[in-house]
Amino acid sequence: MDKIVSETYLTAIGKLKISATSTAVVKIEFVDEFVNADNGNHLTNLAAFQINDYLLGKKVPFTVPYEIIGTEFQKQVWKAISEIPYGETRTYMDIAEKVGKKCTRAVGSACKANPLPIIIPCHRVIKSDGTVGAYNGGEVNKKKLLMIEKAKI
Question: Residues with catalytic annotation?
Fold first, then answer.
């Protein structure tokens, strides 16, 4: 794998550290402080630009190339989550059924391990009782993302 470089960007929902190789974005993290060791690259900049457009309410398809690293189960969950349409939600149970499992906790764990929040929209996965549930970027940010998409919760 190529060398991974990172850059921290200030967005409408806080600071995001975006990491990429020369060919793909590999990680997006919610962070509290700026960590600008590498100054990123063209892909970290493109991801930040597309995320900012999304946060401004533009229904932008994410076209930045990315690579997901995880277990086969995690990849199945992230693929199922990626298929949730903009402005819609699914429950953890819906995703568990889609990947052929019955364990919603395992789906929740896969969501927590999502290396590319926002691009892989785990914020669209909610609890069966209609509450939003946990999110790597915090419950407040999950609600903000769902409000941007005008999703019904």
Answer: 122
